Every structure is written in structure tokens, then in C-alpha cells.
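Researcher: Next sequence.
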Amino acid sequence: MITLHFLITALVVVMAPGTGVIYTLALGLGQGRRAALWAALGCTIGVLPHLAAATLGLAAVLHTSALLFAAVKWAGVAYLLYLAWQTLKDDGALSVQETKTRQSGWQIARRGALINILNPKLSIFFLALLPPFLSGNTASATTEMTAMGAVFMAMTFGVFALYGIFAAGARRQLLGSAQVMAWLNRSFAGIFAALAGRLAFERA
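Model: Next structure:
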């Protein structure tokens, strides 16, 4: 059920810096508020398959299938390393530059969605997060999990959007120096690479 305890727990989870937050910050700094909002939307959409899997019980299948888990995990690792490379390239999609790189909103959102879709731990995470807040009525369990999932997604978009807007606001102050931009790009690339390394060592 949607209780104050659930809302606080969900907010803490959403606010914790992760891959989606880093992606949104990078887009906010590199391309401004519009791109950051599209990034937040994409990351939120990427949560949906994992929430659905947890609600339908498919997360348990992923948890018990070593082959399926490994396939999704290594695809996620490869994708995070690709994002790191895109951050380091001068003309990369995530490169922080003084001149804004214009990309379509759906391109930005698609990358954000893939970041979460290709993280197999999310399904297992939601399978552990949501059931403790159920009322205990088996007849309404699916409805309750769906409602909690919808609230979680709304909070995800709201918090990520705030992160992105903050980054876009700081863009003008931070991008006046080529040295600062190079430092930001190396930092974002290093974070994406580190997250790829962490995911590589995850086990079902």
C-alpha cells in the first residue's frame, strides 16, 4: 500500500545517485534543460519493464536463470562502456561542450531507457522493494504493486528532472573553461566505466 513509509523509502532510493542520475546530469550540462528532461523521461520509461516483471513474477525467473541474467548484464556492461566512449569523444553524444549539440528528444530518451532496461538487478530490486508494503490481500496485490510502481515512476521523473534542471542551470558557470569541460568529460566517462565494472561483478 502507498504509505508514508513507502513514500520515504522510494524517495531515498530515487535520490541516490546512480547511472540514470549521472546520465541526466551529463545531458543537462552538455545540452541544457530540454535534453535533461528528455533524459529523465527516458530513464523513467526504462524502469517500467522491471516494475512489470516484478509485478508479474518474471523477476524471479530472471533471478533463477543464470544465462538470462548474464545476457542482460553483459549487454548492460557493453552499453555503459559505449556511453563512456561517447562522453570522451569530441563529437560524442554525451560530450560536454560549450556549443550545444542538438539531438532529438527521442534519441536522448531511448538511451536513457536502455540504461535501465539493460540493468537486470532492477527487476530483482523491485521484487524485494515492493512486496513488504503490500496489505496482505492477495486479491488486490497486483493492483497495489501497480499503484506503487506508478508512484515510484512519477517520483523518478520528478527527482531526475530536478537534477537535470540544476545541471542545466550550472552549465553557463561551468563551461567557460576548456579545462573544466575536459575534466567533466573525463569524470563522466570514468563514472560510466566504473558503473560498468560494478555491473560486471553483479550476480543474480
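Model: The chain has one domain: 19-92+104-200. The chain has a mean pLDDT of 86.
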